[in-house]
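#onboarding

Welcome to the new folks! Below is a worked example of what a typical request in this channel looks like: someone posts a single protein sequence, and someone else replies with the predicted structure as tokens. Don't worry about understanding the tokens yet, we'll cover that in week two.

Example request:
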Amino acid sequence: DKPNGGLSDARNAGMAIASGKYIQFIDSDDFVEPQLLEKCRQKLEETGADMVIFDIYQYFLATGKKEIIANTYDASGVYSIRTNPELIVSIQNCAWNKMYKLSLFKDNDIIYPWGCYYEDLGTTYRLLARCDKVAFINEPLYDYLQDRPGNITHQFNFSVYHVLDMVKLTLDDYKNLGIYETYYEELKCLGARNILECLKKTRNVNDKKMTEKFVQVCFWYIKNNWPEFPKCRYPILREKNDWIYANEKILRLYLAYRRRKLAKEV
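Example response:
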């Protein structure tokens, strides 16, 4: 009888009544490999890890194409940000390619931010900061539908501002734990990458006022938190044209060009 409160609310409601040792989240339009739960539970029991991360299949509905997205960490070891700080920039922020100890959430009073998009960004790295051990399974156990209708990764609307809220939630948490400076470079890379990915959504939007405001707010946020951006220990710019989105003046010129092009196509 619970009303629909969105993804975060559903996960939090499930955690509130969960009584087992471990918890796994599965999105409603994805599916899993038959041995997912068994293999994850076994890995957590063997290693004593707080979280296990596994490879995934990325599935494209339009073409039927299926490709493996693999982790780079060896399944024979266990890791933490204290020994491997690059975990912060290496693992995917999604909730569904992991199994967790339920106590990781409950003992630390961590829930998914209600009513927010990019909720995984605001949760995964807070959990990671509290993990003594992270294990990996080098096998795809989850099938993620990449091109499903309504996928937030393809949309641009006012919900994109939530990415800034989720970055702030993570940064504030690391500050409260007293470890922000320790992982400053990793958090800069994490935050900047996610903000730039949202800036890329502006390229196909014809609303000048909306896109320019978002660009202004994003670069204010970046400069306020990381004045030396784009300098970083880790590569923030990973794709061929990322340099366009990392420079406010160039991006504004590019978006003006794109709007003219879109107007001609109408």
